[in-house]
What we know:
Elements: E1 3-8, E2 18-34, E3 39-52, E4 56-61, E5 64-68, E6 75-81, H1 88-104, E7 117-121, E8 129-134, H2 140-163, H3 179-182, E9 186-188, H4 199-207, E10 210-216, H5 233-245, E11 253-255, H6 265-275, E12 282-288, H7 290-306, E13 314-318, E14 324-329, E15 336-338, H8 349-358, H9 363-372, H10 377-384, H11 389-395, H12 401-419, H13 435-446, H14 455-464, H15 470-474, H16 483-499, H17 506-521, H18 527-547
Parallel strand pairs: 8-13
Antiparallel strand pairs: 1-2, 1-15, 2-3, 3-6, 4-5, 7-8, 9-10, 10-12, 11-12, 13-14
Helix pairs in contact: 1-2, 5-7, 9-10, 10-12, 12-14, 13-14, 16-17, 16-18, 17-18
Amino acid sequence: ELHVMRKQYLDGSIPTGFQRTAMVGLTGTIPFRVPELGIDRDLSIRQLSLEEDSCREVSDVGHRITYRTDRLGMPLTEMVTEPEFLTPQELHAGARLLAQLARSTGKVRRGPGAARQDVNVSVAGGRRVEIKGVHHHRKLPLLVHTEAFRQLNLLRVKSELERRGLTEDVLPDPPAGLPWKTSPLVLDAETVLADSNFPPIREAISRGDTISAIKLPGFGGILSHPTQPGTTFAHEITDRVRVIACPRHYPFLTHSDAGRGGLVSRHWKMLARALEADSGDGIVVLWAPEEDSATGVREVLIRAREALTGIPAETRQARPDGTNGFERILPGPDRMYPDTDTPPLPIPDSMVAEVRAQIGEGPWEREARYLGLGLDPRAAKVLSVAPWAVLFDQVAPKEGEPARRLASSLEKRLPFLMRSTLGRKARTAEELPDLDRLTLAVRALEAGDLRPEALPLALDAMVLDPRRPVEDILVRFRPRPEDGAALEEEIGKAVEEAGGFRIRSLEAAVRWAMGRVMRAFWGRVSPLDVEARIRELMVPKFHREEER
Length: 548
């Protein structure tokens, strides 16, 4: 059965307020082989689902979020693995495998933003944290390493607070109402800071914002404890306030561990006296409109109390530098519930059999087959998930040199050709070049009528001049009776010209002469034979120069 569920979306990115998710499959495995990491096992897949995409956020200022609807309703497939990755490198390899599996079907969109990864991270003693919005699997190793580093530091913060004897009852939630009126830990600090020259405070007073000071008992030095590269525990609080209280101006918070660049020591001493705080306590100053300030104060106290339990279960947003920031509290299972409009849909066994018959090879099976054709491991892996793998299989080159040359030519030339004006007219890689024309060129290579190094040039010519007969293209690369004498003459000229240059290295002189000669003879003569003849003529000249 296909089960359709609703997942609540409360941020406005889906107009209905929920996302439909269809559960397609549960439990399965795919081969996970990465010899360089010593991995030789199966990767467990927890579930496969189909869901609709939400809107794309383009700005978030204060209480207004702006979305674009160009993604809304797009069908997405989601593969969820079991928690089996133990290192950042394993995760990277697993993400690549899932991407290759999806691409090998030929039924998914490719390109920037077409695939997005959400990754769950936890360390021993911690809790699961979800990081969203990873647009490329190359970012995953740094991202999860940094998140593990953050969680480890949060556990260190917890350990230090426990050593200081702090318990949750020292940070109770303020009673209902405005916190600076109901909680002894919160102070309306406008009077105390009225003469401050700190620019954000001066601007907040001129706007009529409420300025609050919050005492965090026992948190002295904790707010400056590093969590991620370039960030401290105070950023954990700032992120929470930014997302939940939605202040419209930035910065909106400073703290007693901030050092220079904030309030002067006189004002910190005045706030400490007013809050009855000592050197072992931390103080946070927050400014925003009254309602936002009240929400922000509560979040400061809540996040500080969560430090006593270790790592809060959160959904966090990936940043380009590998760090991450708070996005929302991690939702529980109640967020998803059966769709009230769509009952479970029975799937006939005949449909399952039909789909299974159309699946074809997995990328790992293709890779093994290509290795059997004589391709090196890297070429086999790249070709197994390349969009032109179908074209390679349709041409069906012989194993050995023909297969290696065709795979190399497709990999090196097709991406460039598909980006050209002519290539963009093709809907798929199989349409560029024409299958029959390419097959004729490969058969000529197998028969010995075309030199291996000529195949990429022939491929270019077939794509750039699609109306030209293949035989007219191949004849350019076939040996001619006059090639022997003409080649000898060109080699002689190149060696003579190289002798007139100030080339001190024999290897540099040979490379220059090879480029000079092979321009006219590429594909018709053996590069190795040309290089040997150039060396034969150049070595005596270089010996005479050395004797001088």
